[in-house]
Every structure is written in C-alpha cells, then in structure tokens.
Specification:
The chain is an alpha/beta fold and 231 residues long. It contains six helices and eleven strands. A hairpin with a 2-residue loop joins strand 1 (8-19) and strand 2.
C-alpha cells in the first residue's frame, strides 16, 4: 500500500511474525513514503508495537523483508526518531533529563558542540522540562518522563518519526501542545504513530491503518474510531 508520493523510504514485503506457534503479524505489505503521516490503531495484542519494532529493524520478522531507501544504493542513512512505549523504559536507570534528550543526537556526529548544546537546551525547553534538566529520570512523574522521551525522539530533526502511544501519561494541556509540535513536524517529517486517542491525530494523518494481526488501510478519517475502522 502506497501513498500518492512516489519516493518510498521503507518497504515491507510479506512480513510475518510468529512467536512460538502464535502468529502476531501475517503477510504485511506496506510502503512508507516520504511525507506520509500514518496513524495506526487496532486492538490490544493485535501487533501494533511489533510492527513498529520490525519497521525500525529492532526485530527481525519470521518471514518477509524490510527494505530501507539506503539499501538500494543511494548510500543515504535515514535519520529516525523513536518514541517507545514508556513501559519499555527502565525509569531507575541513572541518567538525567539532559542525558536522555542528548541520546537522540547519537547518530548526528556532523553537528558542532555548540549546535548540540543549543538543540538540547531548546528541546528541553520545548518539553517544558527546563527546571528538571539535571534531575534523574527516577525523580520524574510519568508525564515528565514521557516528555523527556518525546524530546529524545525529535531532537535530531528526524526524516522519519516513529511514536508508540505518545499521549500516554500526558495531561490535557501538554497533550494539546504535542498536537501542535506534531503539526509543525509533519510538513518535513514522515510520521508513523500508534495511538488509541485518534480524534485529533486522525485529522492530521493522510493514511490510517488498522493492525489486527493483518493490515487494513482506511481512506476516510471520519470513519476512524477507537480500535475500529468502518472502511
């Protein structure tokens, strides 16, 4: 499945994921194109997070292939930002907000030290965490940690931004701020986002996918609802 854009960044063909005898994903074919904003929903246990991890090459599929643009000889390496589910993060790990945010720049060695520090400070300020920059993440609330992880995901100005349940733990005020941040990123960033809260996000996305072990693509945002799509 492909958007109207012609430049494919990531292509999945025949992707199947099986754990022991349980099939989590079955024969997924998907082209992710530059400029796409893909909103993904589906029931719990339907394979959404597994799909994201396969797209990111954090997990090898049991069958099928995942191809990046750079694999076709362009020599380019995609800059990818990733927000995992918060429950995958060890909040007792002894790092500060500033260090977590800086981790997002690990694959951007071409920027100067001054630019690096400026981006870290600007991102922490954007996340509303300036007063907590030197705090260990174990001292943060759930919402503050989520904001620090969002900062890590966006600080590199990624070409592709992958977010798994970004609204989790956020209060309503910062939830609305995150919508504005995503809107500002969308014109220059390919976005893949999993969320159960689709009311605002669906209006921004140009592609809507339902993942329930297999893949279904919807074409009308007005049909989009919690864990379901009347396509």
């Amino acid at each position: 499945m492909q958007s109207q854009n012609t430049e494919t960044l990531i292509s999945l063909r025949g992707v199947t994921m099986q754990f022991d005898r349980k099939v989590t994903l079955n024969d997924i074919n998907l082209d992710i194109c530059r400029g796409d904003f893909i909103a993904i929903t589906g029931p719990n246990g339907g394979g959404k997070t597994t799909l994201l991890r396969i797209i990111l090459r954090l997990l090898d599929p049991s069958k099928g292939s995942v191809t990046y643009l750079g694999d076709k000889g362009s020599g380019k390496r995609l800059r990818i930002g990733y927000l995992p589910q918060k429950n995958l993060i060890d909040s007792s790990f002894p790092v500060t907000v500033k260090e977590v945010t800086a981790f997002g720049l690990m694959n951007t060695p071409d920027i100067t030290k001054e630019e690096r520090m400026r981006r870290i400070d600007d991102t922490i300020r954007l996340m509303g965490l300036s007063d907590h920059a030197d705090n260990a993440i174990s001292e943060l609330s759930g919402g503050q940690l989520q904001r620090a992880l969002i900062g890590r995901a966006i600080i590199s100005r990624p070409e592709v931004l992958v977010m798994d349940e970004p609204l989790s733990y956020l209060d309503k005020d910062y939830e609305h701020k995150l919508y504005h941040i995503i809107e500002e990123l969308a014109p220059t960033t390919t976005i893949i986002l999993v969320s159960h809260e689709m009311s605002a996000i669906a209006g921004m996305a140009n592609r809507h996918l339902i993942i329930n072990h297999s893949l279904q693509e919807c074409h009308a945002s007005r049909h989009y609802a919690h864990d379901a799509c009347d396509c």
